[in-house]
Amino acid sequence: MQQNLYRIQIVGATGYGGLGLIEQLMRHPNIELTSLLAKTDTGMQLSKIFPHLTGFCDHIVGEVQDERIGENADLVVFATPDRVAMNYAASLIQRGIKVIDYSGDFRFSDLAVYDRYAARKPGMGGKPHQAPELLKQSVYGVPELFREKIQNASLVGNPGCFAIAIELALAPALRSGILNPQSIIVDGKTGTSGGGKKPSTVNHFSEQSENVLPYRVANHQHGTEAEGVLTHVSGSPVGITFVPHQIPTSRGIECAIFGQLNREISLEKIQELYHESYSHEPFVRVLPPGVAPGPKAVRGSNLCDISLFVDQANNRLVIISSIDNLLKGQAGTALQNINLMLGLEETTGINRVPLYP
After folding, report:
1. Are 309 and 181 in a shared domain?
2. For residues 255 and 222, what is the distance between their CA atoms, to the nearest angstrom?
3. Which of 29, 71, 125, 285 is the one with CA 20 to 30 A from 346?
4. 8 Å CB contact between 31 and 357
């Protein structure tokens, strides 16, 4: 029996985020990749740009043109920077085409929260949203928190990579009320691919090698994003001091998260709480006590590893969360969302087995 094929178009296909989704779609039984659009490397076979795709995806990369957006597609993925998808989403939805956006354009239902996010994003401060009327109908794309809404959505804002690592780590503790929501500190570390494919001085080998580079200290847009989502999840205002760092590795995110416990509670009870929250989630692993292997243990997979510790002397909860920033932090979660929006099994085509060493 022939299975139904859904047509997917990727805009921004030659960046790391687009590439990560393409790699997964090559093994998806229900999806046909109908077109790849980009601003760079147009007119070339994708496999000439990324030779590891030779024989798997030899599509020609088309130039981004207004009339081509949504062409021959049931769903369009914008693997693009901020302020691109907002110019096309309304017309696509009117045509019955579903939309997933990798940027922050549709991560927020509240325009004021979007404005706070944009103010923290370099070059975006003061620029108005071009489709504010769509914010109320957009759904935030973390399936572990908003699965039912995603299933019925036409427009999904894929989460930021640091944000999803923070949100999955903190949601059970905040939802249960064991953590002071205003006490949270996050020390985040990411590989260079988190900055995208475009070269920059900070991504130069001689700057990265043997170095740890803090950036946007207590002023990163993913901190604002996580605060808003976790406030919604917990029902109480959440305050996060977030300090991200770039480290000399190509991919992976690790967040060390600290928060004041509201009462004395054993590590065993917290482990039980997290196991109950995530026992049916295919892409979240709550690791045994004392085990925190870091992002290498999830490399190449869509997994989020969560490790729990209690600093009893200071009554603090310490959470370590690890993801592959290009998969669970971007393209893997996007494919979860695609599957849900199209009524498919959520895990279809998504890799759960890490690449090690």
Report:
1. yes
2. 12
3. 71
4. no
Residues belonging to the active site: 161
Residues whose CB is less than 8 angstroms from the CB of residue 198 and which lie 6 or more positions away in sequence, other chains included: none
Alpha carbon of 155 to those of 134, 211, 266: distances in Å?
A: 8, 39, 41
Measured N-to-C along each axis, helices 221-234 and 111-119 cross at an angle, to the nearest 10 degrees, of 150
First to last CA, the chain: 39
Please check the confidence at residue 318 and state whether its pLDDT lies above 70: yes
Domain for residue 351, yes or no?
no
How many domains is the chain built from?
A: 2
Query: Structural domain of residue 127, as residue ranges?
Result: 6-159+329-342
What's the token pair of residue 204? Answer: 């130069």
Separation in Å, CA 50 to CA 61, 219, 269: 12, 34, 47
Q: Are residues 113 and 179 in the same domain?
A: no
Say if CB 332 and CB 22 are below 8 A apart.
Answer: no
Spatial distance between the Cα atoms of 263 and 243, rounded to a whole number of angstroms: 26
pLDDT tens readout for residues 151-186:
999 999 999 999 999 999 999 999 999 999 999 999
Cα–Cα distance, 355 to 269 (Å, whole number): 32
Q: Residue 265 domain-assigned?
A: yes
Residue 350 lies in a domain: no
pLDDT score, position 197? 67
As a whole number, mean pLDDT of residues 273-300 equals 97
